[in-house]
Amino acid sequence: MKRFARLFTSLDQTTRTTAKVDALAAYFSEAPAADRLWTIALLSGRRPRRAVTTTRLREWAAERAGLPLWLFEECYPVVGDLAETIALVLPPAASASKATLAERMAEIRALATVDEPERKARILNAWDSLDGTERFLFNKLITGGFRVGVSQKLMTRALAQATGQDEAELAHRLMGDWRPETTSYHALIEAPDPAADLSRPYPFYLAYQLEDGPEGLGAPEDWLAEHKWDGIRGQLIVRGAEHFVWSRGEELMTDRFPELAAARDFLPPGTVLDGEILAWAGDRPLAFNALQKRLGRKSVPRKLLEEAPVVLKAYDLLEEGGADTRALPFAERRARLEALLADLPAGLPLRLSPLIAFDTWDSLAETRAASRGLGAEGVMLKRRASPYLAGRKKGDWWKWKVDPLSVDAVMVYAQAGHGRRANLYTDFTFAVWDGAALVPFTKAYSGLTDAEFRQITAWVRKNTLQRFGPVRQVTPQHVFEIAFEGIQESSRHKSGLALRFPRMARWRHDKPAAEANTLDDLRLLLQRYG
Amino acid sequence: MTDRARAAQVATRTGPVGADIMANRAVRGAADIARGAGPARHYSWLMARDPLLSVTEKGIYCPEGDFFIDPWAPVPRALITHGHADHARPGHAAYLATRAAAPVMRHRLGEIALDTVGYGEARTIGGVTVSFHPAGHVPGSAQIRVERGGEVWVVSGDYKTVPDGLSEPFEPVKCHAFVSECTFGLPVFKWADQAEVMGEVNRWWAGNRAAGRFTLLGAYALGKAQRLLSGLDPGIGPILTHGAVEATNAVMRAQGIALPETVQVTPEIDLKAHAGALVLAPPSALAGPWARRFRPASTGFASGWMALRGVRRRRAADRGFVLSDHADWAGLNAAIAATGAEKVLVTHGYTSVFRRWLESRGYDATIVETEFEGESLEAGEGAA
């Protein structure tokens, strides 16, 4: 575990990409295979489940540190991270553990199988043999919250550097439903690519946001455009007699969308489609929260299937007849996709995402402006000649979203952030006027600069009216423009509304609280766009 | 209204002595909450006689000596614990500080009417006796002891209990009432040994030099910078300084404090001749254009706040070194215990939590609102 802690420290201590890759590559070259496997698993988000409740951990940590629980609880929001708070308050370790990462992970997995007194004894024992970073990491691992500032892409690059293997091939190997408990480093990284692994998806190609207009992209005839749908990205694989549905977060979601099983009957084996999964009714998508209900459940009751049926709007073809087509130009892949889906029966939950005809950027701009009326959130631009790349790459794929909706709202509550934002007030609740009363309607966390967060933090400290645990009610004085992508009815919120992707577009220093928007203004937006 | 009259009025308003403890608790709790909402500046310490010290709009005030300690608004007579900007402010008619604090105060405040005393030397002012005792915070820093007929109060200013090799080491002073900071008054703050931290700094510097990088180290210009200097290994390479740091170096060297050789960064400096140098500057300078000439470079900060990973990451520095001129949790608790005081008044830091902790340990603990800032998280602020 010491070696892993050193790796974590070097990754944590630098903001330079090359330094991170070098540190990882050095680790992959020298760590034992079992540790390498666990490191790959942890850095690709394959964390062990939480082995113990955080309530128990707090109690045990306070007890071990000889502190009253209330004092421990006061420390937590200041530190902003439970694992770190525990690591900091505990007394120094009495002994030093020599356990490797893999051995430590085995112990952590075993925690779930023992009763609570035994679990407590083992955790106290571990705390007493770990210091500093190791103790912090152990806590992160038992609370299931392990994260480090390294993308899977960087990790893959480092692995390629250490092993001399091709980066793209490694990225493909690391996709899918493998678990460190059931495979080995050799099987995952070195063994001949098991063609048997029918379920393995391709890494998704992600678009960049187009900030200015498309004029800088060159001639319109070099580009194809589609609507940008507000669903979840999905990859549909039909291989052998089976089918698989993967989310962009590499989660296998086959069972969540039983409708898509029909693909097995209509697509030839060796087909992989990339598209958007949407809850759909008639000629337009349902609101995102209809889809969200489906995402929340592993098995779907019949009633929900009827209320929120899903379709896959396909927009790319990654594999045809068992052959990888990603290197072909997009126009060619698109033509093959159209041919493949041409003769499907109309009722099938498998549709082509239609192309938008346009010959000038101006005409495309008009289509984009009308997106919201179609239930889309803008348009996608893809270069005709572009291959299907892995990850977020600039140049060939762009999302050109409609301008967000926005309202001016008054900040009424503030809460300190966590992790990097501990000690800063960054999580705010906003309200609009309903007559003479302010009705809270959304929270927002992002959109301000660090300097603005510092400024508002100093103000919150001086203008707190009441405290509710970590939440402070503040003088209703500051107005912020809240931008959002959609608005829906919601019975869970006091305002009766829920926003999609709310964030702070800017701090309206120029506007007094009395001039913020009203609940009626929001209801009007709901009527028009909900 | 004179400050004396105001203090007396406050004392009256605060109510009878020996009031029910539970009632006091409730009042304090309410005051905690009210602090955010409105002005609640007036506090007095509930003592059998008129309190020896109380807080007015201008600062900590002693009615019987008619002087203030570290006031934040201009007053006729100010006793100053140390030269940091939130404790030694301009505009007072007369100043009293230790001899060792005087050079820095003159440097920062210019022409002031400054009288000095040695550590432990007693002075009578009005009806009270005052003396200054080492606080271990920065060179020249002091706790101020105020005595009236056997009743002793100590205002500790900023302090740390571990010796840093540069400041006069902290001396516990027995008292009845102790006015304490609690900048790092939470049990998550535990300082490592200074030698260990300086070892980390030196290894980082040596590594940077070997890799052909400059080492940019951010630290407050008065105190922290010199403490770092005295722990750096000049054998590794040249040490460059920002003008603000160098000015304080010059003042301290002139009063006989030994510091390693430094070269001030000027527009004409030949950086090739100083490749691999360590550059010591205030944090604000590292964030601005001044620092851009040093490339490539690795950046680090030295502060007690670097104990928290979130703070380290928010600064986006390569390294954060946990080094503070304030007492950590254990230091605060040990210092308070060593005074033998029953009454503790906490001035700045995690005051409401620390007050509650002290109360649970049997102290009569109160929060007093001051304008002291403790160790600032942000670049460019005056306190340290």
From TrEMBL, chain A:
Domain ATP-dependent DNA ligase family profile: residue ranges: 303-434
UniProt EC number: 6.5.1.1
A single MF term (Gene Ontology): ligase activity
Domain of life (superkingdom): Bacteria
Catalytic activity as recorded in UniProt: ATP + (deoxyribonucleotide)n-3'-hydroxyl + 5'-phospho-(deoxyribonucleotide)m = (deoxyribonucleotide)n+m + AMP + diphosphate
Keywords linked to the UniProt accession: ATP-binding, Cell cycle, Cell division, DNA damage, DNA recombination, DNA repair, DNA replication, Ligase, Magnesium, Metal-binding, Nucleotide-binding
Key word Membrane present: no
Pfam families reported for this sequence: DNA_ligase_A_C (PF04679), DNA_ligase_A_M (PF01068), DNA_ligase_A_N (PF04675)
Name listed for the protein in its UniProt record: DNA ligase (ATP)
Organism of derivation: Rhodovulum iodosum
TrEMBL record, chain B:
Domain of life: Bacteria
InterPro entries on file: MBL, RibonucZ/Hydroxyglut_hydro, Xnuc_lig_assoc
Coiled coil: none
Record-linked SUPFAM superfamilies: Metallo-hydrolase/oxidoreductase
PANTHER family assigned to the protein according to its UniProt record, in alphabetical order: BLL1145 PROTEIN, CLEAVAGE AND POLYADENYLATION SPECIFICITY FACTOR FAMILY MEMBER
Entry protein name: mRNA 3-end processing factor
Organism of derivation: Rhodovulum iodosum
